[in-house]
Amino acid sequence: xxYFFWFIFAAVIVDSSxxxxxxxxxxxxxxxxxxxxxxxxxxxxxxxGSHEIEYYTNRTKNIRIENGHLVIDxxxxxxxxxxxxxxxxxxxxxxxxxxxxxxxxLPSGHQLWPAIWMMPHHSKYGGWAASGxxxxxxxxxxxxxxxxxxxxxxxxxxxxxxxxSGPRNFHNDLSKDFHLYAxxxxxxxxxxxxxxNHFFTANIDRMMxxxxxxxxxxxxxxxxxxxxxxxxxxxxxxxxxxPGPYVTxxxxxxxxxxxxxxxxxxxxx
Length: 269
Ligand SMILES: *[C@@H]1O[C@H](CO)[C@@H](O)[C@H](O)[C@H]1NC(C)=O
Ligand SMILES: *[C@@H]1O[C@H](CO)[C@@H](O)[C@H](O)[C@H]1NC(C)=O
Prior knowledge:
CATH architecture: Sandwich
Shape: globular
Bound molecules: 2-acetamido-2-deoxy-beta-D-glucopyranose
Strand content: 35-45%
CATH topology: Jelly Rolls
């Protein structure tokens, strides 16, 4: 009986460890323009191996600060040989472990692919996905109540693997309002939260080699023992939606909301 109560007590203590986090970085997107001490623009039509069909620019019509928010604004327009333009930025700072929060309002529309994610700053264990990837939020704009969280690792493509929440239905249209997307990442696990509700845990307290191809790792927890930086973007189409065909400019006229707004990003350690 004494042990039983001790366990409940210990659980409460662990749960309140949130109070021990200290803010180490923030971007509230309150200035006149994007803070280029914090961010790089990704430019061009890159497709990233996933056959996305957008062209990323740094024009304010695609990415800007407005009313204290970062706005990524997808345009239906001919640009280079592309039908759509959008925005994507990469963080210049990086951290190992911590609590990472993004308060965001998602877009909504056929084959819009917004993402709030993190990539390794130095690729110490080799090319994708040997050095890891942490997808805090990835959504198909056709279903704005559903998103998924994933970590990628295990080896260089095609020897990579992943651990994923799978699509989760939060029964709430996440394009109607701001919601808090967060992870807590420590040497043993990465916990994923929506509006402070914990819905998924990825265990990293293990050898993370996929078992295929060369083993890039020597210890448990690799590659998630290195600094990672933020990435924010809205892609369009691509293999995330299957083999195609992908959304046309004509279909895109019916997109209900072609912007993603980020109110703030916070990093605690
Ligand atoms: C936007 O990109 C163009 C092309 O690379 C570059 O010349 C320009 O300086 C960039 N502007 C900003 C604000 O980064
Ligand atoms: C752009 O849209 C047109 C009309 O739907 C389509 O025929 C064309 O293949 C598209 N181009 C690209 C690069 O996706």
